[in-house]
Amino acid sequence: MQRVRQRQPQAFDRVLSSMCTEPHPRAHEAAVEFLATNPGDPATYQTVADLETDAVDQLGEIAGLDDAYGYVASGGTEANIQAVHAARNLADGAQTTGGDTPNIVAPTSVHFSVTKAAEMLGVELRTVPVDDDYRADLDAVSAAVDDDTLLVIGVAGSTEYGRVDPIPAMTDLAHDADARMHVDASWGGFILPFTDYEWSFADAPIDSMAIDPHKFGQAAVPAGGLLARDRETVDALAVDTPYLETTSQATLTGTRSGAGVAGAVAAMDELWPAGYRQQYHDQQANAEFLAEEFVDRGINVVEPTLPLVTASVSPATFEALRDEEWRIARTADGDLRIVCMPHVSRASLEAFLADLDRVRS
Ligand code: 0PR
């Protein structure tokens, strides 16, 4: 305990590039209460298992799905891996007996968890270019899909630029090729309901989705979400569990965090929909404020269509801001990337801009 007492966790006021945030106080409370429970053993930990059913129903409501199947995963990585896993297990003979390696198609903007999935599951990941606005290029998706395609993945709120791929058109391309469609809304899922984007189960007949309570949902880590339109998706993931009272388990991990499940339900109870709507508007306003301030200083930005701003600053400026203890990150192209998560205040952005002016002068 001594070693922990001597340390403080990272304070959030200087964290500007994380996709995690401070849990809502109710989520914190619920997470502590359910810390020792394991939804991986629902026959023993019945209460948290019931809460998980509530969580999936609630996530389904947010994502436009009436009868949702799925579970609370450890995060977007697990949900993406399991979407590929289900697609591989469900593939019919045409895709698996031809002798060719099955493939999945996704834009270059897809999160690196999909690279992990492809590697683990022995499928080929075909990444296709994005257009000038960082969205999946439909012609390139169409050209990449073939008889061996198991799954097309679209991103709804991309990690680097917060872009939403053309989900309905990608779904058509996938289904025309007898492939499945997965949407990665890990980051965007709790803000997109308040926008005009077409991203959800209500907008297109997508098959599965990643949507993470532990990002914009303000739940405690770890709480991701895997959602599926049909029971067969979850069944395709299930293995027999001979010595447990329940007969099968569909999750990638065994013992899981009851804190994650309870925290997610508490946060959604508290915030859906009004609290999340307010948070989206506040953070979108923060992102637009920040983008304008950059432009006023002659710094190029990528327009924040969701609450995420990227800006071209020199490596020296970036390092100097890190030295000022700002927790910031860069895109693969070297642009400064700031994610306006619920903990980001206007005051902390103003303090950041003041430091930016000082280190540049
Ligand atoms: N899909 C998308 C679109 C994501 O942005 C991320 C995470 C994932 C999937 C994977 O989610 P998990 O990390 O929950 O498995 N994107 C962030 C990133 O890679 C993750 C992150 C979060 C990074 C907090 C830093 C941080 O402090 O940048």
From TrEMBL:
NCBIfam families: tyr_de_CO2_Arch (TIGR03812)
Primary role: Catalyzes the decarboxylation of L-aspartate to produce beta-alanine.
GO biological process: carboxylic acid metabolic process; coenzyme A biosynthetic process
SUPFAM superfamilies, alphabetized: PLP-dependent transferases
Source domain of life: Archaea
Organism: Halonotius aquaticus
Pathway linked to the protein: Cofactor biosynthesis; coenzyme A biosynthesis
The name this protein goes by in its record: Probable L-aspartate decarboxylase
One Pfam family cited in the UniProt record for this chain: Pyridoxal_deC
Keywords of this entry: Decarboxylase, Lyase, Pyridoxal phosphate
Modification sites for N6-(pyridoxal phosphate)lysine: 215
Enzyme class, first EC level, given as a word: lyase
E.C. number(s) listed in UniProt: 4.1.1.11
Cofactor field: pyridoxal 5'-phosphate
Recorded catalytic activity of this chain's protein: L-aspartate + H(+) = beta-alanine + CO2
GO function terms (MF aspect): aspartate 1-decarboxylase activity; pyridoxal phosphate binding
Family: Belongs to the group II decarboxylase family. Sphingosine-1-phosphate lyase subfamily.
